[in-house]
Design goal:
The protein folds into 3 domains: 4-48, no CATH class; 51-120 and 298-336, no CATH class; 124-295, Rossmann fold. It is 32% helix and 28% strand. The strands form 5 sheets. The protein has a 6-stranded mixed β-sheet, with helices on both faces. A hairpin with a 3-residue loop joins strand 10 (158-164) and strand 11 (168-175). The relative contact order is 0.21. The two termini are 27 Å apart. Helix 4 (140-153) runs parallel beside helix 10 (280-295) and helix 7 (231-241) packs parallel to helix 9. It has 10 helices and 19 strands. By secondary structure, it is an alpha/beta fold.
Amino acid sequence: MTKLRTHGYIMTGKLFSRLGAFCCLAFLQGGGTKHAAQDVPLNLRVNVVLVQLNVAVTDNKGNYVTGLRPEDFSIAEDKIPEKISTFEESSELGHGAMEVARRQEDAARTGDPKAITISRVSESNLFILFDTSNYMYRTFVFAQDAIADFIRSMNDTKIAFYSYSRNLSRATSLSSDPYRLISGVRSTVAGDEAALYNSLLLTVKDASPLKGRKAIVVFSNGPDNASSVPPEDVAELAQSNGTIIYIISTREAQEDPVSAAAFERVSRASGGKAYFARDWRREKQAFTAIRQDLVHLYTLSYYPQPNPNRGWRSIKVSLVGKELQKYHIRTRDGYRLQPSAATYEPVASSEANGSPTATASN
């Protein structure tokens, strides 16, 4: 049976047949240019999604469980078992560099092309979205202090600092320079109404093309009263591109049941958490809790098995082994497949005798 390999993903059976039918249709539509089409070989480019999951594992007391291995996890997408392709953990987790190196050597020694790539988290991108609306007038300086302390604590992380009221302000692009970032925090000024979901949607879109772990920390002091997009749109996009959303809010938002419920839904859907702080001390505690969560996440990825479902796909992550069933898992519960298309483009004559190729796209 003919197979087409696409960066670790093999298409067979019905999927390959559909691509073949697409090729035939393109050829028939050429009409009078049949001979030209034969003279110009084409490369077939197919978008293949690598699904990345950020997974928190905790015990009944909320303590993080460290030292887990790839074989301790199982993943199913639409109830179809998936094979873990990569497994990453923070440098602050249980496995040291020697353990990671040993497991990589074992995989290389077996010569198994399907061996799981195990590594430390190689790239981490964090966006901070700060509410500067008129809800913030009373606690503006305290919030700036809490954000500045949080930035100082995030070592080896690229951070972007944004602020919002009615509009989004991209104050500082992704940077590892804490002085530049804190300068951006200190330069913010209070604005007018709050368009949180508009601004959060734009921030999720900014994070979308980035590789590695992606997270957004929102500091909001009150309800959204100026957005044109609903929170459900934000949650779905964050789920689909693997961006974690954490929301820190205050008593003003918690006292509004609609806002509090929306904050909970958006953060939970992305695999993050929502925090409601009564005062500036609790705000700092919430930032500390988010940092602890980020450094204790496991990052797993997989190439989905052939699946006819072109819409919403559910994801179920489980722990393997009876002794691990007592622990709790938090991650996103699915994603919507992003539209993609097969495209054809001419190739150089030196590639004329080669077979069609495909490229992977996240």
